[in-house]
Amino acid sequence: MFDLDEAFKEIQRGCVEIIDEKRVKELLTSYLKNGETFYVKAGFDPTAPDLHLGHTVLIQKLALFQKYGGIVQFIIGDFTGMIGDPTGKNETRKKLDKKSVLENAKSYKEQVFMILDPKKTEVLFNSKWIDELGASGMLELTTTFNVARMLEREDFDKRYKSQTPISISEFLYPLLQGYDSVVLKSDIELGGTDQKFNLLMGRTLQRSYNVGKEQAVLMMPLLEGLDGINKMSKSLNNYIGVTEDANSMFGKILSINDSLMWRYYELLSTKTLDDIRVLKENVRVGFLHPKVAKEQLAMEIIERFHNEEKAKIAKEEFNNIHKQNLLPTDIESFELDGPIWIAKALVDAKLEPSTSNARRDIKQGAVKIDQVKISDEQLQLQSGTYILQVGKRKFANVKVK
RNA sequence: GGUGAGUUACUCAAGCGGCCAAAGAGGGCAGACUGUAAAUCUGCUGGUUUUUACCUUCGAAGGUUCGAAUCCUUCACUCACCA
């Protein structure tokens, strides 16, 4: 069916750390021999249903486990989301109502099943069993742990020492996440490196509650965003969303630098490590242009979230704009009353935020009309149709009446 | 609750009566160079067709002054130390 060593290598790929490798191997072996499936758990915050490639690193790893006998327990942390994971932030969260949780869950599913096999996935809400826990159950849960150990967690420790407030409820977060593992009897839990403490809590609690096994823990790195420095996140606007259209995905992937490209290959591509090594070597000796390697990566990712056809079109489109200086096909159109001052037209066509800025860009030679650079900032557009361009990427089709 | 410090543009941060649309850094945008990138160099980065000008901005509201981001008063918020 599959080779154990090969499978394990694939699983190890990109991981920062695996705790209890032996157990992972055992699970794979027993699936190989007896067809016994096992549970792989991962939790997601219900507040942000817009997935980006940073999230898919983890989800792809889940999909890999499905290939090797894993049943994925996809947990929507609707209860824990109310507390807010204290990791690295101190904003207070708003409580989500049932309706928006369900809506978020729905869009989660749509996005996640582009990668995961729905037949081998259980989508679960952790409020279900945590609500049942009740006050006494909650109290019992807290007796399994003490404050000193809680403060072992790095960011609690930092905040405690620097006298930044820690809410009592935040202590509950790791406990409840761990309790999920108790109820679900998970065999493996995946998470980001920032989740280490919470993931280990699952092991501790499974022991305390005599589940009869302790989950293995597999930690994935946080994917760097387009800038190559910060982790990919929506707030930094350095992300590629899985629902983005093919053209913008292509452009964004091509804009990353070469070293980041290999990082993306490792964490996002389904090519084998050997194939990637060959690719890398070919680029190194100059046999393959790095741009081509990057295009291949972009194609693969777009195929995953759209299809092959769209990937091809996106590639052509991109090369049209950049290489051959042709125009993109889907330029937004505007109708304006003429004659109109060029700076005003640029603002009206949403290419510039203000006429002052438009003037500055004209002075710098960033503005083109029908592909011809202009320098006269007093220019009046007479009636007719024009293609206005600012910089390399911003276009508009303008009809002056 | 007490005491002290602070609140300046996208962010950090200088300015402490006129030369302030406000230094510097980061970020962003653009130009050159490239591979479409990165790195590098350069320019721009409140608004307005009065563009060596005018208008609105320095937590909020008042006040002093010929003139206030700068001084005074009140209010709001943030932080630190003490309780």
Can I get a quick summary?
By secondary structure, this protein is α/β, with parallel strands linked by helices. 49% of the residues lie in helices and 15% in strands.
Distance between the termini: 69 Å
Gyration radius from CA atoms, angstroms: 26 Å
Question: How many domains make up the coordinates?
Answer: 3
CATH topological fold name of the largest domain: Rossmann fold
What proportion of the residues form beta strands (DSSP E)? Answer: 5-15%
Shape: elongated
Uncertain regions spanning at least 5 consecutive residues: 87-93
* Helix-strand pattern: HEHEHEHHEHHHHEHEHHHHHEEHHEEEEE
CATH secondary-structure class of the largest domain: Alpha Beta
Can you list the strand order of the major beta sheet? 1-6-5-2-3-4
Mean pLDDT: 85
Major pleated sheet: 6 strands, mixed
H/I helix tally: 17
Query: Can you give the helix content as a percent range?
Result: 40-55%
Output the structural class: alpha/beta
Q: Give the name of the CATH superfamily of the largest domain.
A: HUPs
